[in-house]
Amino acid sequence: MFVDLLDELKFSFKGEVSNESWIKDYYSVDSSNHRILPELVCFPKDEDDIKISLDSAIKNGLSISCRGAGTSLLGQSLSNGIVLDFTKYMNKILDLDLQSNCVDVQPGIVKGLLDKELRKHNKFLPPNPASSNYCTIGGMVSNNSSGPYGLGYGSILGYLQYIDFIYSDGKKGFAQNGLCDDRLNKFLQPLFSIHDEISSMYPDVSKNSCGYRLDSIFTPTFNPQNLFAASEGTLAIITSLKLKIIDLPIFRSLYMVYFSSVQKACMYTSKILSTRPAALELLDSPVMDSSIKSITASNNGCLLFIEYFYQHQGEINSISKLLKSAVYSEGKVVEQAHDLDSINNLWGSRRNALNMAIKYTVGNRKPFTIFEDTAVSIDHIYEYVTDVLALYNKYNLSYVIYGHLGNGNLHTRPLITDSSSSDDLLNLTQTKMLHDITNSIFKKVKEYRGTITAEHGDGISRTPYIKNVYNSFILSYFKYIKKSFDPSNILNPGKIVL
Ligand SMILES: Cc1cc2nc3c(=O)[nH]c(=O)nc-3n(C[C@H](O)[C@H](O)[C@H](O)COP(=O)(O)OP(=O)(O)OC[C@H]3O[C@@H](n4cnc5c(N)ncnc54)[C@H](O)[C@@H]3O)c2cc1C
Predict the structure, then answer these.
(1) Where residue 395 sits, what CATH number does that domain have?
(2) Domain end marker among 85, 116, 137
(3) How far is the CA of 140 from the centre of ligand 1 (A)?
(4) 318 and 274 fall within a common domain
(5) Does 191 lie in the same domain as 107?
(6) Helix axis angle, 424-447 to 381-394, nearest 10°
(7) Mind giving me the DSSP string for 88-139?
(8) Probe target for ligand 1 pocket from 145, 305, 461, with the most ligand atoms within 8 Å of CB
(9) pLDDT digits (tens, 9 = 90+) for 328-379
(10) Whose CA is nearest to atom 13 of ligand 1?
(11) How many structural domains comprise the chain?
């Protein structure tokens, strides 16, 4: 049957279709620990190609999953059906309107390439994951990605102006500020009268990629396009997007501040935030590369990366004074940069944190990913970090910790030795330990009204835990939304709604 499917698709497809085994192998993995072999991989050229793929998926009982660069950490883009890769053809800037500060793009454009083009016009799109040299706008929107400037500028959800998409039955839809197609409007009707109630049940955090962001559709006005942020390709296939862009900051200053421990740094977070930085990032010593380890002159402790954007050069002295006073007496400014090259140089070490974490994979030992992206409000960050470190201590685990401290969003992973297959009893004990730690951490997150994922999303790994964040009322609306969009459950099944 699938040979016929390949022929059938090849006949009408303008882009490319492949079932070659090396291609399927390549697309069977992303940046997670999962592996799922797809049946076919398609590289669509336009909306017609997408419709053709959807038709074939329905006719042949296959699922269909979109893929950008495959840098998701929880298996979001993996599928045993058809994978649609947008990076090969649907990767263009369609329009750049400097008057209204908007850019129109196709979903497969790489964020770093878009940045390069915007920089020529002194503009930027602030959400900037450490993976931005590879990741795509379609992937960023579908995970609601952010990165360091999430503190000053929020996640990509705040930049969505217009989305063109294709429903699971091949029909076209759109959503923009204040308006959407009739079908989507009908889906959203039951939410109109209860949106305040819904929003009150969402986590109390500055960014959130868990479940569907129903809380963002009516704030402050009707923004139906926001439904697609964090929806992980489970509702529709995005074909183009209009995004808000802003002027590049005129002046920037980056400070690196040393604290003797992560907990100490957390104690000072509120004070540092009162100085209004655009970014406040944490890097603990185990994930520092050699270039900055020498700056700290210590094997322990952590660094905060604190960046300010400002309009007048004269502000630099007052910023510097304010920061020094905010971190007094435990924090020490060990490095600072005020020109773009030096700033980018220093940021390189922070961007490298996940790679440094992955370097701890030796033999069967690896950093364990499931609670690596929690967030709590800054009021609770010190208590929360203390809870997490106490758990690592209880189970005698080494760990890495870094991330977006200013958003209360820390990326932490214990280093676990995978004992599979050698000793069943050991396996059981270890599985139980991981289960206990995960449940304890997610329980704490709930206690502090946090989220289990601030920017990485749910994917295959975290979907079973969404119920830790939302009550049955909200979960019933997730089911309702998924069923309305995708009654046959063909769009990226196994993610967000099981
Ligand atoms: C080294 C490293 C560092 C990272 N740092 C950060 C960070 O700082 N901040 C952060 O937020 N994340 C970070 N991430 C996570 C990840 O890079 C981001 O989530 C990224 O935005 C995903 O983009 P992608 O193009 O790789 O998407 P993919 O992984 O390919 O896909 C992501 C989701 O988007 C869906 N999708 C893609 N295109 C479409 C479309 N056209 N229509 C509908 N759905 C679509 C897919 O089905 C999938 O569900 C990091 C990952 C790595 C490996």
Answers:
(1) 3.30.70.2740
(2) 85
(3) 5
(4) yes
(5) yes
(6) 170
(7) SSS--EEEEETTTTEEEE-TT-BHHHHHHHHHHTTEE-----TTTTT-BHHH
(8) 145
(9) 999 999 999 999 999 999 999 998 998 899 888 888 888 889 999 999 999 9
(10) 129
(11) 4
Please tell me whether residues 168 and 303 are part of one structural domain. no
**Cβ contacts of residue 80 below 8 Å, gap of 6+?**
36, 37, 38, 39, 63
In this prediction, the residues of the chain whose per-residue pLDDT falls under 50 are none
In the three-class reduction of DSSP (H, G, I as helix; E, B as strand; rest coil), residue 255 is classed as strand
List Cβ neighbours of 464 (8 Å cut-off, separation of 6 or more).
Answer: 498
Instruction: Look at ligand 1, atom 6, and give the residue with the nearest C-alpha.
Output: 129
Token pair recorded at residue 92: 């263009």
pLDDT on residue 423: 67
pTM for the predicted model, two decimal places? 0.96
Rounded Cα distance, 4 and 269, in Å: 60
* Residue range(s) defining the domain that contains residue 395: 364-473
What pLDDT sits at residue 220?
82
Q: Whose CA is nearest to atom 22 of ligand 1?
A: 139
Q: Are residues 342 and 374 in the same domain?
A: no
Within a domain: residue 483?
no
Cβ–Cβ < 8 Å for 410, 283: no
Residue 425 lies in a domain: yes
CATH number of the domain at 200, please. Answer: 3.30.465.10
pLDDT, position 426 = 67
Angle between helices 47-59 and 2-12 (to 10 degrees): 160
Question: What integer best gives the mean pLDDT of the chain?
Answer: 95
Place of tokens 């059938």: 8
The residue among 297, 324, 356 that closes a domain is 356
- What's residue 267's pLDDT? 98
Cβ-in-10-Å burial (0-12, 13-18, 19+) of 374 comes to buried
User: What pLDDT shows up at residue 361?
Assistant: 87
| CA of 305 relative to ligand 1 center, distance in Å | 24
User: To 5 degrees, how large is the angle CA 8–CA 9–CA 10?
Assistant: 95
Nearest CA to ligand 1 atom 7: 129
| pLDDT tens by residue, 77-122 | 999 999 999 999 999 999 999 999 999 999 999 999 999 999 999 9
> Within this chain, do residues 153 and 272 fall inside the same structural domain, yes or no?
no
Distances (CA, A) of 165 to 51, 159, 169, 171, 359: 11, 17, 11, 9, 39
Whole-angstrom distance, CA of residue 307 vs CA of residue 291: 19
Specify the pLDDT at position 2.
58
How far is residue 332's CA from residue 171's CA, in Å, rounded to a whole number?
58
Q: Examine the domain organization and report whether 240 and 257 are in the same domain.
A: no
Question: For the chain, what is the radius of gyration of the CA atoms?
Answer: 23
Residue with structure tokens 């699971």? Answer: 168
HSE of 165, CA atoms in CB hemisphere, 13 A: 31
Q: What is the pLDDT of residues 258-298, one digit of tens each?
A: 999 999 999 999 999 999 999 999 999 999 988 888 888 77
Residue 143, token pair as written in the block: 């995970």
216 and 327 assigned to the same domain: no
